[in-house]
């Protein structure tokens, strides 16, 4: 099966290429080879490669920068997805797309289900929601996988930032009043490939929106403590820094962060037998790779 992967140089794109199962002919393109915001380029690449499935791992992911660069964020996260959706529908093929917890307002107390009302609070979340709407409207066979707090050995993420700060500082403050689910890029790639295999073998899936994130839920502060504990154990850090628990208000950012990002992932498990990965084990694999 021929699979076109966009955003192939990003965290998830990288893992999608690395973990492609046997029997899939993968064409992974970075943003220079394929700008998804360019409709003509999308149409050309799709016409040439004739994919049987598109997996979109491309996105404008700079959450804070998006507040002052909204036009670009919308061009990639909404219009780019529309371009892929239209090209896929023309060929009669599905699109698997990755979305985010930021489509929610982040003020809930229970894990978000796919049917819960959305309400993004910033440009990034709104533009990603725009992409979901465009995909659903333009491509009849689509999977939208919302995830959160992505980390991996490749690319920029919280784990890498903590490792750098842990080496530079003896003490640091980490936000302890935001709750979410760290998710390894590799586990997202595995979930998407499991869906691709099911689609290849059965010719259909239960299409629609799904949540997929790591387990258990934690705060950034708890995530940081576990990163330092494991990194120290593996010899990546000489000493564990003091990690102070701080409030969101102590760490102002241009885009507001959801206080509650916990995703209920039971729908994907029930529909497609894909279970959540324990992020602490995934973290161990990533740290070993970095070591
Ligand atoms: N990171 C997170 O914590 C997080 C959380 C929830 C959901 N997500 C979602 O998960 C997906 C994957 O995220 P990630 O962490 O892998 O992001 P990432 O590492 O920032 O990768 C995104 C990739 O998209 C590419 N890209 C940007 N604009 C593009 C364009 N116009 N055309 C084609 N490619 C373009 C970038 O390429 P260049 O670098 O060459 O520009 C980059 O390699 C995204 O949909 C994101 O919204 C991420």
TrEMBL record:
<keyword id="KW-0521">NADP</keyword>
<dbReference type="InterPro" id="IPR029903">
    <property type="entry name" value="RmlD-like-bd"/>
</dbReference>
<dbReference type="GO" id="GO:0009243">
    <property type="term" value="P:O antigen biosynthetic process"/>
</dbReference>
<comment type="pathway">
    <text>Carbohydrate biosynthesis; dTDP-L-rhamnose biosynthesis.</text>
</comment>
<dbReference type="GO" id="GO:0008831">
    <property type="term" value="F:dTDP-4-dehydrorhamnose reductase activity"/>
</dbReference>
<dbReference type="Pfam" id="PF04321">
    <property type="entry name" value="RmlD_sub_bind"/>
</dbReference>
<comment type="function">
    <text>Catalyzes the reduction of dTDP-6-deoxy-L-lyxo-4-hexulose to yield dTDP-L-rhamnose.</text>
</comment>
<dbReference type="GO" id="GO:0019305">
    <property type="term" value="P:dTDP-rhamnose biosynthetic process"/>
</dbReference>
<keyword id="KW-0560">Oxidoreductase</keyword>
<dbReference type="InterPro" id="IPR036291">
    <property type="entry name" value="NAD(P)-bd_dom_sf"/>
</dbReference>
<dbReference type="InterPro" id="IPR005913">
    <property type="entry name" value="dTDP_dehydrorham_reduct"/>
</dbReference>
<feature type="domain" description="RmlD-like substrate binding">
    <location>
        <begin position="1"/>
        <end position="290"/>
    </location>
</feature>
<protein>
    <recommendedName>
        <fullName>dTDP-4-dehydrorhamnose reductase</fullName>
        <ecNumber>1.1.1.133</ecNumber>
    </recommendedName>
</protein>
<comment type="similarity">
    <text>Belongs to the dTDP-4-dehydrorhamnose reductase family.</text>
</comment>
